[in-house]
Amino acid sequence: MLFRSARLIAAGHVDALLAGNALATHDIEGAMFGTALGQELYAKRSVHNGHYHHLDALNAVRQAGSIAAAVEAGRIPDGIMRALIKAGVPFVLAGSIRDDGPLPEVVTDSRAAQDAMRALTQRATTVIAMATQLHAIAVGNMTPSYAINPDGSLRPVYFYTVDMSEFAAEKLANRGSLTARAILTNVQDFVVTVERGLAGRRTQAG
Questions:
Q1: What span, in angstroms and rounded, lies between the C-alpha atoms of 13 and 77?
Q2: Nearest to 33 by CA among 19, 16, 54, 18
């Protein structure tokens, strides 16, 4: 899923990303070592000393000084964060008290993180929240239900939440995001299907 997501970003289908330390750290571990918390990404086999990979990835980026510096140095060969930086797509990584590390780009002041997120959500026309209940609620709370077109007319801001849990989808609606539409499915399947569908459209257009 990490590399499918990177293709979507590289193809210009993502205008901003809001996440936390965990997404970036897992993504970088996957890109650097082919593991997630020490297990092979696809085979799910445990790798010898793989439990260190999570911290190794964090330390490599911190040693480089930033995610962007690690990408430019060739330390991060693939993945979401590399694709964002290469494409110049803005992102906000909002910190949490339970973060390990965290990565240098993580905004650890919660109010500063909210301001940075709000600056992007105010410009959004479509929001897709994937398998992240807390971030989905946070973004839902700061995303307007409509946008103003250049000609002064109004258009809705489309908001979708993709999750395996009905509870997560209902929680978003209960918090006031009444325009949110739930897609109850596995996020990996969703990303793969979207990437394939958009790749097919590009092929037909070409």
A1: 21
A2: 54
